[in-house]
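Is this the right way to post structure tokens for a design question? Let me know if I should format differently. Anyway, here goes:
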């Protein structure tokens, strides 16, 4: 696969705009869509992610090499599986009933991303960005080799999609850690020791019970 150039973000909240700012700083073209009209979010992006292009969701999906889902999780059923089929899609969403309300399909699920994967059958879904706060995505990025560089987990059933997303994360300023299949995402969901923890590559591998040399 060729090096991704365009990052599409569905969701213009704090997580989505934090990822947009990091992607812009890394030299990517960034397109952002939300439930609001593109003309309306364009004004917001001028201040919170200058350089990002406001688009509608269909334009973001059609024109992006990697698509990041940074929506409120309750909106996931509005996503069209046919439009996202074959696309590399990063699930950065979390299920948190106090803010999302109780969503029965997520109650007792191994991880929220596996529910999303069932809806988006055909997408090359990868789980990442969810165990780090938006302010950390914005403020904790470091150059490669920096002793204080933080690590970010990547899980997905498509090895090539995982590798592509890992390269994206690396350019954004974090050490990607390949956690394996999508089912491994349950190890870095809300409520796990990994969630919100400040971990380097070795520490994250240990927390995920991965071989140190992997």
């Amino acid at each position: 696969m060729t090096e991704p150039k365009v990052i599409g973000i569905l969701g213009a909240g704090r997580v989505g705009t934090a990822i947009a700012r990091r992607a812009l700083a890394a030299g990517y073209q960034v397109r952002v869509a939300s439930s609001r009209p593109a003309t309306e979010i364009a004004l917001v992006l001028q201040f919170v992610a200058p350089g990002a292009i406001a688009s509608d969701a269909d334009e973001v999906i059609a024109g992006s090499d990697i698509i990041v889902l940074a929506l409120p999780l309750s909106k996931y059923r509005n996503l069209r599986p046919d439009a996202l089929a074959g696309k590399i899609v990063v699930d950065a969403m979390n299920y948190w009933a106090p803010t999302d309300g109780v969503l029965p399909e997520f109650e007792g699920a191994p991880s929220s991303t596996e529910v999303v994967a069932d809806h988006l059958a055909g997408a090359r879904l990868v789980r990442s960005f969810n165990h780090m706060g938006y302010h950390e995505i914005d403020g904790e990025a470091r150059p490669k080799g920096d002793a204080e560089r933080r690590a970010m987990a990547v899980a997905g059933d498509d090895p090539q999609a995982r590798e592509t997303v890992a390269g994206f994360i690396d350019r954004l300023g974090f050490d990607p850690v390949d956690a394996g299949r999508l089912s491994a995402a349950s190890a870095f969901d809300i409520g796990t020791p990994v969630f919100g923890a400040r971990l380097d590559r070795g520490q994250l591998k240990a927390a995920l019970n991965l071989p140190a040399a992997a």
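Format looks fine. Someone answered above. Worth noting: Residues 13 and 148 are 27 Å apart (CA to CA). The two ends are 23 Å apart (CA to CA).
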